[in-house]
């Protein structure tokens, strides 16, 4: 066996699809000094038993589309480069819909996918039968077909990638287990093998599949992924079964179907899945199988056979059960770990390691080499989770529903059912008693909407159309615009940033000027070196040396990591996560001042308490920090209440506002209110590939501020080009009936020019509203925006719409600054 080198630029731990893809793409970027260490043999973990499906599924972001299409295109041509076949065959991919909700969902997604290079088209039940003649499709209402998709051989793909990586200079060592990641001063500096040999490295990449959590934990890294039993059945030969039979996916049976050596493979993604080896994956597990639990999967196999009853006439060649690793949200874990600099990860592929391996490997390779990822990574960044998500109890409970979510019916507002109540505001019981229906956000229980009674706080039927809570939500919305609402926003992340260099740190990160007088609240974007968003948040100066940073719960880990990573050498800054100790209660609406004046002696007038300022005020018996800010477009305050006083303050507000008609309001209302004002939200509307200038937030970018900021030069160059050809616009459908959720394609004068990032219903504006980027071959001027004509595709039908650069509701901010 060749001797291990003592040093490499990059050491990759794991020789499956992801490890070999990452090595291959690194060499394509000119990084030849790459070492891959595989504990057993290449593909011996889960890659060897993968089904090799190269099919798009339902992709709902630009990033997902780019990751997918890169892999499909690479596998189709890789043999030409390496001489090693991948087994890729474009046999086609067919999804079937057997109820109106699924048809509607697919019709919503298809235009978006076509815009991003995936030619998904609707086909009739008759065409479904022709494409998949072995199927019983009597209940099928429609199919959706992609001719270019297909299948590959997972082992062949990996070996071809390994050959390509070696051709680029990478070295691959099998039977070389990594026992430890070497660290110095919170940096990864190499690895130590089980045999005691050390390799020093500038970068360490964990691509260890289901073993990644254990390896990471030994270095203090949190990787919340869990192996689960995954089943497929292969029948004996079926006479007349075409070799080029399309891959079929059926959400009704939670099964995929494809040809396998003349027989049929039935792959299960059943609800109620079984976690495997919570305590840890055996280090010597290789090319292994799990004893099938026939009693548990029997009913699901029976359902799977119902789609292909002819297959029951032949024998079973193999019932396979093997492990696959899953994450709490069915999205991969990718990026630099918060705990260790220069330690990267790409794992948790949720049974899609072949499908998404190439795209993920490309993203990570560019991230390592360029310092920035080439696509939006907010949904896959490893820093989105906390330690809570990796506990054995959480992994045990959440994993049970993850497989079913991969293939089942999807809805826009469906929240996880398992491993709930991870984080609860101290107001939870009060809100539940008030009729709150709770959804989940980053582990937080969040009121989504309020029913008249606790007994009515349920969704009668999930739907892409108006649900039973629609009118209650509309009443909350109207209360915010005409009266006063109270919102529990405790899930907002709050960081105290203190020290003599706190201002220098936050100034370096912030596009806006944060070196302001104490008591000022500053809205700002944080940008990367290319000018792309890294956050949008508020920075409030409380004293010369103390600041409060408030950001959405979905950006908690990323914001904290970015602050800590940018403390300069010799700087003295203390960052404290105070989220758990503060209950944030928002009071908003035209009657917000009247309510607040009943509970506080503070001067709450516009002159005494101006917009975007913070004051310590009394509320009843308590002294607390109040911020005059808004994310709903109305007069109001954020009250940052110590958790010990929160219930009392909430009760006082609700009692004092009874005759004012005060109402609780939830996240659905927050979304509809903020979309009417076209307020942006990082991770939902804007991401690391967007910039504040094109997003319409140039007012918060101070290019001339002393000392500059990260991304200043890139944003100055964008600004200097004049009116952008890409701009974020607000859209309002002229027909009040259709609903918007995001990803709807936007048309200008009949040509597709963009898509919506997010949508909701503007109860004040009188129709569905959304915001999204459009890209033209000329500057997007106010005249073009005003003239249109604009249309938005909603489930295959183009609906006329109005567009605007400025908020359609209260563009002069009169409601906010009163």
From TrEMBL:
Q: Where is the GCVT N-terminal domain?
A: 427-705
Q: List UniProt keywords, sorted A-Z.
A: Oxidoreductase
* Oxidoreductase listed as a keyword: yes
Q: Does the keyword Oxidoreductase apply?
A: yes
Q: Which Pfam families match?
A: DAO, FAO_M, GCV_T, GCV_T_C
> To which species is this protein native?
Rhodosalinus halophilus
Q: Indicate what this protein is called per its UniProt record.
A: FAD-dependent oxidoreductase
Q: Where is the Aminomethyltransferase C-terminal domain?
A: 727-810
* Domain called FAD dependent oxidoreductase: residue spans: 10-367
Give the family per the record.
Belongs to the GcvT family.
- Single GO molecular function: oxidoreductase activity
Q: Where is the FAD dependent oxidoreductase central domain?
A: 370-425
Lineage top rank: taxon: Bacteria
């Amino acid at each position: 066996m060749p001797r291990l080198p003592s040093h490499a630029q990059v050491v990759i731990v794991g020789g499956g699809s992801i490890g070999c893809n990452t090595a291959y793409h690194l060499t394509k970027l000119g990084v030849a000094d790459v070492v891959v260490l595989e504990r057993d043999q290449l593909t011996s973990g889960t890659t060897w038993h993968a089904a090799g499906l190269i099919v798009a599924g339902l992709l709902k972001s630009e990033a997902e589309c780019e990751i997918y299409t890169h892999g499909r295109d690479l596998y189709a041509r890789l043999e030409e480069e390496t001489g090693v076949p991948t087994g890729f065959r474009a046999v086609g991919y067919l999804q079937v819909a057997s109820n109106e909700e699924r048809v509607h969902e697919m019709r919503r997604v298809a235009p978006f996918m076509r815009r991003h290079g995936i030619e998904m088209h609707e086909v009739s039940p008759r065409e479904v039968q022709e494409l998949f003649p072995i199927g019983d499709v009597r209940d099928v209402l429609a199919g959706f077909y992609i001719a270019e998709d297909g299948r590959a051989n997972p082992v062949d793909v990996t070996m071809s990638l390994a050959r390509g990586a070696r051709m680029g200079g990478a070295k691959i060592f099998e039977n070389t287990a990594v026992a430890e990641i070497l660290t110095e001063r919170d940096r990864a500096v190499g690895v130590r093998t089980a045999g005691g040999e050390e390799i020093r490295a500038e970068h360490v990449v964990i691509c260890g599949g289901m073993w990644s959590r254990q390896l990471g934990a030994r270095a203090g890294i949190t990787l919340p992924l869990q192996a689960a039993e995954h089943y497929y059945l292969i029948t004996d030969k079926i006479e007349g079964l075409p070799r080029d039979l399309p891959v079929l996916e059926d959400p009704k049976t939670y099964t995929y179907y494809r040809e396998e050596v003349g027989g049929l493979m039935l792959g299960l993604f059943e609800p109620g899945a079984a976690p495997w080896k919570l305590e840890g994956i055996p280090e010597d597990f290789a090319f292994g199988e799990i004893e099938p639990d026939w009693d548990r999967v029997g009913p699901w196999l029976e359902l799977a056979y119902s789609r292909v009853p002819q297959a029951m006439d032949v024998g079973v060649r193999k019932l396979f059960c093997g492990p696959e690793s899953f994450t709490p949200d069915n999205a991969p874990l990718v990026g630099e770990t918060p705990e260790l600099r220069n330690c990267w990860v790409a794992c948790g592929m949720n049974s899609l390691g072949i499908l998404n391996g190439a795209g993920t490997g490309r993203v990570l390779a560019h991230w390592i080499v360029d310092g920035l990822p080439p696509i939006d990574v907010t949904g896959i960044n490893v820093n989105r989770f906390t330690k809570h998500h990796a506990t054995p109890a959480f992994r045990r409970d959440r994993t049970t529903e993850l497989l079913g979510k991969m293939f089942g019916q999807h809805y826009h507002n469906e929240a996880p059912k398992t491993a709930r109540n991870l984080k609860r505001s101290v107001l939870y019981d009060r809100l539940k008693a008030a009729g709150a229906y709770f959804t989940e956000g980053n582990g937080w229980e969040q009121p989504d909407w309020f029913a008249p009674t606790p007994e009515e706080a349920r969704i009668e039927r999930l739907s892409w159309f108006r649900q039973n809570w629609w009118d209650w939500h509309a009443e909350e919305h109207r209360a915010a615009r005409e009266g006063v609402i109270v919102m529990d926003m405790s899930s907002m992340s709050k960081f105290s940033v203190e020290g003599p260099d706190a201002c220098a740190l936050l100034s370096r990160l912030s596009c806006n000027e944060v070196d302001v007088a104490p008591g000022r609240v500053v809205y700002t974007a944080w940008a990367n070196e290319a000018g792309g968003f890294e956050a949008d948040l508020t920075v409030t100066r409380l004293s010369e040396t103390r600041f409060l940073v408030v950001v959405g719960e979905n950006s908690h880990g990323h914001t904290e990591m970015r602050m800590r990573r940018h403390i300069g050498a010799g700087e003295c800054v203390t960052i404290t996560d105070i989220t758990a100790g503060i209950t944030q209660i928002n009071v908003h609406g035209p009657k917000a001042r009247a309510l607040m004046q009943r509970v506080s002696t503070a001067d709450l007038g516009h002159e005494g308490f101006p917009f975007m300022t913070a004051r310590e005020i009394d509320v009843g018996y308590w002294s607390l920090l109040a911020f005059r800010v808004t994310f709903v477009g109305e007069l109001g305050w954020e009250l940052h209440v110590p958790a010990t006083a929160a219930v009392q303050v909430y009760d006082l507000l609700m009692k004092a506002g009874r005759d004012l008609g005060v109402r609780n309001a939830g996240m659905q209302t927050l979304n509809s209110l903020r979309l009417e004002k076209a307020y942006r939200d990082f991770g939902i509307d804007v991401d690391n590939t967007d910039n504040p200038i094109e997003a319409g937030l140039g007012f918060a970018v101070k290019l001339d501020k002393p000392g500059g900021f990260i991304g200043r030069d890139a944003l100055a160059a964008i600004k200097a080009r004049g009116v952008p050809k890409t701009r974020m616009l607000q859209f309002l459908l002229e027909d009040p009936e259709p609903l918007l959720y995001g990803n709807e394609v936007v048309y200008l004068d009949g040509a597709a020019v963009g898509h919506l990032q997010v949508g909701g219903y503007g109860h004040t504006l009188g129709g569905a509203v959304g915001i999204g980027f459009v890209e033209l071959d000329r500057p997007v001027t106010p005249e073009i925006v005003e003239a249109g004509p604009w249309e938005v595709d909603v489930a295959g039908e183009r609906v006329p719409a109005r567009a605007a650069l400025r908020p359609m509701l209260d563009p002069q901010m009169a409601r906010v600054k009163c």
